[in-house]
Amino acid sequence: MITIDLAIDGASPVPPYEQVRRQLAGRIADGDLAAGTRLPPVRRLADDVGLAVNTVARAYRELEAAGLVETRGRGGTVVTSAGDSARLEVQKAAEVFAMTARAVGLDPDEALRIVGAALRVAAE
Asked: Is the pTM value of this prediction over 0.90?
């Protein structure tokens, strides 16, 4: 899970939930929040930006309705591939890799080093 910095303008005519939604949607579209990224829990993000829990929850619901995120119960809210089939394929492969690495007891840092090495080899 990551920390997300958002700027909420209390004087803006744009409702706070829409400011949250727009900023998150923009970061997803830019690739700053990649497919598979777990967003902070609603309560934590609300505390971080000084908004009511229901305000952030509405922004998350709007993002989910747009297909940009999905809520996985205890798994939290995760950025989707937003219909990009190539990203979806890579996201699924990454999930399988993560489960395999965990199953064999691989340290997350070592797993990331392995992926980095594989990406460097593939780029050659």
From this structure: no
